[in-house]
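EI: anyone free to look at a 158-residue chain?
SC: sure, send it
EI:
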Amino acid sequence: MANTLTQRIAEELGVRTNQVDAAVQLLDDGATVPFVARYRKEATGGLDDTQLRQLEERLGYLRELEERRDTIISTIREQGQLSDSLHQALQTADTKQRLEDLYLPYKKKRRTKGQIAREGGLEPLARVLVSDPSVDPHTRAADYVNADAGVADADAAL
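SC: here you go
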């Protein structure tokens, strides 16, 4: 992966991969762009400040992209929905936006309180209470107590 990142950055900046490798090493070791541009020109083959800033920015973006790609692939694999074609599409996605667009159908949805209540079988209780205000809520809610569904008592049902 690291080699492809440096090759990609080298192509985008129009420089040699050994220049990019040297700059990445210096930046990863904690050197700042101004320091590298001024005092390490011999190591980077003469990359200037502008090229180094572009390199640093692009390197950060591509590393984040790879990290997100790995996370997405493992998440979809855990769901058992990773097909060969989807895996290939995820591997070739060249932007974060494209990656997220591919992931969207497989992304876990947040569950609302209403969804949780429906899953617990409480929708009929809500319909009765809304349609007939004269019904005692606590009495009616007692009919919907179901520990297996997460409704421990009448208050939980309400």
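EI: Residues 2-106 form a domain with the Arc Repressor Mutant, subunit A fold (CATH 1.10.10.650).
SC: 👍
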